TrEMBL record:
One of its GO terms (biological process) is xylan catabolic process. Its main location: secreted. Keywords: Carbohydrate metabolism, Hydrolase, Polysaccharide degradation, Secreted, Signal, Xylan degradation. InterPro entries: AB_hydrolase_fold, FaeB/C/D. It is found in: Secreted. The keyword Hydrolase applies. This is Phospholipase/carboxylesterase/thioesterase domain-containing protein. It comes from Entotheonella factor.
Length: 240
């Protein structure tokens, strides 16, 4: 129960979970149209966990249109409705499981990316890193520095790439990296460029990928390309 409303989520616990072994924690937020069960499938995060990890897939509230939401229409940028949902989940899971609270990560796509980027800014002291695809940001300022991986197709018609650049620039600013030159990465095919040297605690990856088609052959630049989940989990694992 959060703010008087019953909320739901999926929690995936490793089969070899031990109460004495600290677990990393990944929150994965869905978009406007796909529910948490669907994104669990196509995000494809779990098999790429380098360390023992709990995965939580929260469920947004459905509006009158049937679409999911993470905020109410008049929410201020610094206080979106479901920041409280995240806070409640983090507290609850932290009580019931052995969680490494310095290894909390956030993932999102589309509306879930917008919410994840905004949440990472608003709760930077509790979030180690955020990785998103095809989303913007509502926050005008971040609470603190937070590592970020922003993936966005320049041809995206649903969420303009300018929104992704604004999220990137917000993290660059608060991570003190605005003056840093970006360096191309050759580890995967998302066209990523890194801001921050190898020892940087809070680097920013900007990935203007060029995967214009879904695996079924449909032109849809807003899609989640194969390998994205693996790349995001690798980014989390690479952080000092």
């Amino acid at each position: 129960m959060v703010a008087g409303r019953q909320r739901s989520f999926m929690l995936i616990v490793p089969k070899d979970y031990h109460s004495w072994q600290p677990q990393q924690l990944v929150f994965a937020f869905h978009g406007r149209t796909n529910n948490n069960a669907k994104v669990r499938g196509y995000y494809d995060l779990e098999r790429y966990a380098a360390q023992p990890t709990l995965f939580v897939y929260p469920s947004g509230l459905q509006g009158k249109s049937g679409h999911f939401t993470w905020s109410a229409p008049r929410d201020p940028a610094h206080a979106l409705r479901d920041y409280a949902f995240f806070d409640a989940l983090l507290a609850d899971i932290g009580k019931r499981y052995c969680v490494a609270l310095n290894h909390v990560y956030i993932v999102g796509h589309s509306l879930g990316a917008w919410f994840s980027n905004s949440l990472a800014c608003a709760r930077a002291s509790r979030i180690r890193a955020v990785a998103t695809l095809g989303g913007g940001i509502s926050a005008r300022a971040c609470q603190d520095a937070v590592a970020a991986m922003i993936v966005h197709n320049p041809k995206d018609r649903l969420v303009p790439v300018a929104d992704g650049r604004r999220a990137r620039d917000m993290f660059l600013k608060h991570n003190g990296l605005l003056e840093m030159r970006d360096v191309p990465l050759a580890t995967h095919d998302l066209n990523c460029r890194r801001y921050g040297h190898q020892a940087e605690r809070n680097p920013v990856l900007w990935c203007p990928h060029t995967h214009d088609y879904t695996w079924r052959g449909k032109y849809y630049p807003h899609n989640w390309p194969r390998g994205t989940g693996r790349a995001m989990m690798a980014f989390f694992a690479s952080l000092p």
